[in-house]
Amino acid sequence: MQLGKLLGISWIALALACPLAQAAAPARPYQLEGTEVQTIPSKILHRDYEIFVSLPPSYATSTKRYPVLFITDADYAFPLIRSVNRRVSDHGKKLEEFILVGLSYAKGDDPVHSRNRDYTPTDTTGNSSERPTGQAEPYRQFIEKEVFPFVAANYRADMSRKVFSGHSYGSLLGLHMLLTEPQMFNQYILGSPSLWYDKRVMFDMERSYAASHKDMPAQVFMLIGSFETVKPQSRNPRYNKESDMVKEMKDFEAKLKSRHYPNLSVHSEVIQDEDHLTVFPALITRGLFWSFASK
Q1: Which domains, from first to last, does the chain contain?
Q2: Cystine design at 56: which of 11, 97, 99, 281 (Cβ 3.0–4.6 Å)?
Q3: Distance (Å, rounded) from C-alpha 49 to C-alpha 103?
């Protein structure tokens, strides 16, 4: 007490003055600056969906319109793409600015159920009690007829320059759109496409498209990790156990090129030392430079 008296303050006052003795301030959620969450009630799907929107740094001080990148699995991919873009763009010197739109899952749905239902082109559950799959076409219509008009009406978006990106089932959805309405997007960044799905049904869809079309107006960039193949002799657990997704992607690329569509550009890349779960950051970085590299 002598020290407290000498300083003219009590030990209680000392404790209040000490930061370690004070209670921590109430925590607040982390927010991404310059982002918005919008809800779109779908009349087509009879469900509500959220979209995440990130506007470019110059948006508030300009009057220009920006190209738009639409990404599936937004809960994971949206913050990652936003961070990668800001890290590598060097204030617009390396990458052109764009509006990022994240396509999230149906509100109230389990994310796995939502993506399995909305991103797959055919129903593989039959009459079983499993949750249905195979609603990629109505989901495609939701994007085209409800998401696109919403974005066009609420943001300075250049809807003549739309880029799609997805990974795994997200790329399966992208391939469905490519083989249904290829002009829906100008460019497709497709990572680790699940071409094994439903006994390689996308190869059947490709044959059907080729039988009735003379052109496929789109630019396609497919990427995959080098471990997404099958090597039974290897003990490395990063290799796929069943599906040789690398071969399937190369086969699909070769099939598209064999059609000689006058306005189709197809390119693929195998990214070394990446597997199905680790490849996305590397592939989206390459995809951003492919679509938005400054001239």
Answers
A1: 32-123+132-292 (3.40.50.1820)
A2: 97
A3: 8
